[in-house]
Design a protein that fits this description.
single chain, AhpD-like, 2 domains, 6 helices
Length: about 110
Amino acid sequence: MQQDQELPAAAGQVARAYPELYRAYAALGEACAKAGPVEGEALRLVKLALAIGAGSEGGVHSHSRRALEEGVPKEALKQVALLAIPTLGFPRAVAALTWIEDVTEGRPSRASR
């Protein structure tokens, strides 16, 4: 379970203000991850793809950071963004690629600029 101190500022504030809700949310995430055979790098890349599909910059940042911490190569993260081109469109894929590169290249996100 990700600790609330590791969360981005706004999410961390909500987790600290409503700890029971955050614990339940985190437990749901863990239960979903354990519900089937997908695990490890594949699980992280699927979660990254879902964040890309949802257009969630924060989610893409979070899953990219966690993937790198788990040893997933940055090239694999970028490939997930490129795989989005035929399904989600070029603009969404390019946006996702820039969000991934915020993390892989150590750039500040647009939200913090």
